Amino acid sequence: MGKFRKKYTAHFLESEVRAKKHLGQHFLTDENIAERIADTLSLSGYKKVLEIGPGMGVLTKYLLKKEAEVHVIEIDTESVTYLRENYPQLEGRIHEKDVLKYDLSQIFGEEPFAVIGNFPYNISTQIVFRVLEMRNQIPEFSGMFQKEVAKRICEKEGNKTYGILSVLVQAFFEAEYLFTVPPSVFNPPPKVESGVLRLTRKKNQKLACDEKLFFRIVKTAFNQRRKTLRNSLKSFNLPDSLREDTIFDERPEQLGHDAFIELTLKIQPYAISDQQ
């Protein structure tokens, strides 16, 4: 088939489920892109996959072709009805829940699973934070975001788009921006381009510092990203002797995740007792 594969899903699908603006739904209609996204998962060392927001299953059908136990989680009742009618092989694995609120251990217990999807723009950042919370169980995470968000997650230090998500994600995952997707392959078309990324969990994801403090320092620093760390971290009430360290001359976007770990280790003796 190759390049001669039919590019779009059958037209009748477009009328089956109505895209809902309040859910941020933009249904992917390009089969080639759906297959490329499904192929981002290696399925190495695990066989369970969670697709978030499957809609009418354009990505789901390619996941089901793989040797994996595919689960889908969908908050839209109309989409759930469509999936039950058109994907009988998903019986018992369609979860009509809010992924941001549902306890995913009800599905996977303590077993590893990948997360994938064409993520609604309005909750995509929250989904990333959810993945970070469950990173011990999630070896791979891939899917489609608003291009600006996908780029930010994968950005390196020294750039204006580098921020909280960049540091926190890259501390635990290898982040790759894979390709850009135009608005024309969605129904309805979004007003911006989309981007597909892949996150692969690092073999050694245990930080050398206190993780809660690391998160707190990163978020506090970027909340005043134009200031030097000496000023943005004033709330930590650090002694002057420590604040004279040259690392405090930097602005947050100048520090990679390793440098933030180093910074956390410097602050840790003074701040740990403050958190308790």
UniProtKB/TrEMBL annotation:
GO molecular function, one term: 16S rRNA (adenine(1518)-N(6)/adenine(1519)-N(6))-dimethyltransferase activity
Catalytic activity, EC: 2.1.1.182
Principal location listed in the UniProt entry: cytoplasm
SMART domains (UniProt xref): rADc
InterPro entries for the chain: KsgA/Erm, rRNA_Ade_diMease-like_C, rRNA_Ade_Mease_Trfase_CS, rRNA_Ade_methylase_Trfase_N, rRNA_adenine_dimethylase, SAM-dependent_MTases_sf
Residues that hold S-adenosyl-L-methionine according to the record: H26, L28, G53, E74, D98, N118
Places the protein is found: Cytoplasm
Pfam families (alphabetical): RrnaAD
Keyword S-adenosyl-L-methionine assigned: yes
Enzyme class: transferase
Keyword terms: Cytoplasm, Methyltransferase, RNA-binding, rRNA processing, S-adenosyl-L-methionine, Transferase
Superkingdom: Bacteria
Domain Ribosomal RNA adenine methylase transferase N-terminal: 33-203
Catalysed transformations (reactions): adenosine(1518)/adenosine(1519) in 16S rRNA + 4 S-adenosyl-L-methionine = N(6)-dimethyladenosine(1518)/N(6)-dimethyladenosine(1519) in 16S rRNA + 4 S-adenosyl-L-homocysteine + 4 H(+)
Family according to the record: Belongs to the class I-like SAM-binding methyltransferase superfamily. rRNA adenine N(6)-methyltransferase family. RsmA subfamily.
Name the UniProt record assigns to this protein: Ribosomal RNA small subunit methyltransferase A
Record lineage: Bacteria, Pseudomonadati, Bacteroidota, Flavobacteriia, Flavobacteriales
Gene (name only): rsmA
